Amino acid sequence: MDKVLKYKKHLIESSPVLVSLLILLVLLFIPTGFEDALLYKGTERCKVEVIRVDNNNILDTGLVRSGEQTCEVKVLEGRFKGRTVQGVNVLNGSLESDKIFVAGDKAFVLIDYSGEDIRYVNMIDHYRLDNELILAAIFVLLLVLFAGKTGLRALLSFVITVLAIWKVLIPQYLQGRNPVLVGLVITISLTIIIIALVYGFNKKTLSAVSGSMLGILTTCILGMIFTDLFNIHGAVMSSSESLLYSGYQHLSLTKIFMASIFIGSSGAIMDLAVDITSAVNEVVENCPTINRWEAIRSGIHVGKAVMGTMTTTLLLAYSGGYVALLMVFMAQGTPILNILNYKYVAAEILHTIIGSFGLITVAPFTAMTAGILLTKKKKENEKEVCLEIDTVEQITE
């Protein structure tokens, strides 16, 4: 009997990993449908080393630099490896997008060729892929060293999330599918997978997933309502207009913006649901005689404590990228009412407050589901123990 119970327990714990690995394999090999984009046919992207540069055609006007920088580069990989060619770096007068190369730099270039003849070399940017790989390797190493098997599961969920967004969510959006429905399906599916990797397929997972789903649905509904009330257009999202000009005028940027609200807050919602579920489970484990309402009350107390920091976390996450904009407002002496009324500021306020609504919703609901689901089994066990004690006493008598 003990072996059967151990086998069942092992199966419950390992089955989410097996399911996740299967999903990972599917995501790795599933096509996006955009692999053969015409824009980059007949081209090759590769790493080069800058040998020398010519800045004579660059025009400096204060902070703005325009014109062209000519670079002599040596190709380090690909079909043209070892060849020395001339590359062109076009400057648009934008500090945000322009780059300047010096001799010895490693650069990422786009080579336009016909057969073995190179027609044009475009200097895309400095080469960063090797350093990104090193950073990712350090992250994986530390995650596994400190968290062990849990770290490996976290890494698995991380990779699945990245692939799900790139291979499923983005292609579906580009194909014109309803962004809100697609976002809900992807977000809820990822929530189930990620939480199952933490707990296994058991009542704790059911509790945390139930709470997370309510928070996500609340965020979704409120996001749709207040996006309309705020008169927010999806063009407030960075690079969204470029998407329309690339031949995707049929896309609804506003619905994509609505979906981004609950997708962006889903991580914090999931985190809070897991925190409350784990806390309630710990209370029940250490006090098997606790009743449901006491367990629910404990979960709500934990939710109150965590909610305060989580709301601030959302605020910092959303506003961190707007520090320069806030500095511009202050430097120009823009009145605070004007700032709050700007469309892009209102969009960030919408993100933060609606995401916080999701947290407020998920806390009591997760506490309730955890209290009901996790104490039921304990009560049954308690009755079984009492029955066994009565039986032993009867035999003794």
Tell me what the structure shows.
- InterPro entries: YibE_F (IPR012507).
- The two termini are 29 Å apart.
- This protein has 397 residues and is of the alpha+beta class.
- It is built from ten helices and six strands; from the N terminus they run H-E-E-E-E-E-E-H-H-H-H-H-H-H-H-H.
CATH architecture of the largest domain: Up-down Bundle
| Rg estimate, integer Å | 28 Å
Considering DSSP H and I runs of 4 or more, what fraction of the residues is helical?
55-70%
- Give the overall shape, derived from the CA principal axes: globular
The number of distinct structural domains comes to 2
Order of secondary-structure elements: HEEEEEEHHHHHHHHH
Main sheet, how many strands, which sense, barrel? 6 strands, antiparallel
Q: Please identify the structural class as seen in this structure.
A: alpha+beta
Detail the poorly predicted runs.
378-397
Pfam families: YibE_F
Keywords: Membrane, Transmembrane, Transmembrane helix
Which helices and strands appear, and what pairs or packs with what?
Elements: H1 2-29, E1 43-54, E2 58-61, E3 64-75, E4 84-92, E5 106-114, E6 117-126, H2 129-174, H3 179-199, H4 203-229, H5 240-245, H6 253-286, H7 292-319, H8 323-331, H9 336-341, H10 343-396
Antiparallel strand pairs: 1-3, 1-5, 2-3, 3-4, 5-6
